[in-house]
Amino acid sequence: MDDIARAAGIARRTLFRYYASKNAIPWGDFSTHLAQLQGLLDNIDSRIQLRDALRAALLAFNTFDESETIRHRKRMRVILQTPELQAYSMTMYAGWREVIAKFVARRSGGKTTDFMPQTVAWTMLGVALSAYEHWLRDESVSLTEALGAAFDVVGAGLDRLNQ
């Protein structure tokens, strides 16, 4: 933490005012991003099929300026490839899954904790993580392409939820 604080040009104590732990640093202000994801889902027309709604939100949530690609790739490499971060990451993923499950539950008339919304939330997390891992391995692929392709693998199953 001392090295991080020194590199940031702030005191260690100040660093802990911004971040609860060392593991929180690569995640940044993820709660703000989750609120953006929630906003994306809240603003999708209810007539749009669940599959299309989730795909659109997933792609929009993971869209960033091209100038951020290198930095974002480094950050995601730290998050996904640092064993010490995996347990902390699960707590962050729980918030992400909660947003997805809430949307699916609202669409299906169920509860967030019901089996179907939870299954879809876990599936969407798997889609996102597999896409990010592919994107990190193959720098010739855009994140949008990787996310779209990963989503399309499970998309047909989501179509059946609308029947």
TrEMBL record:
It comes from Mycobacterium tuberculosis. The lineage of its organism: Bacteria, Bacillati, Actinomycetota, Actinomycetes, Mycobacteriales. Keywords: DNA-binding. Residues 50-158 form the MftR C-terminal domain. Residues 1-25 form the HTH tetR-type domain. Gene3D superfamilies: Homeodomain-like, Tetracycline Repressor, domain 2. Pfam families: TetR_C_14, TetR_N. It comes from the Bacteria. This is Transcriptional regulatory protein. GO terms for molecular function: DNA binding.
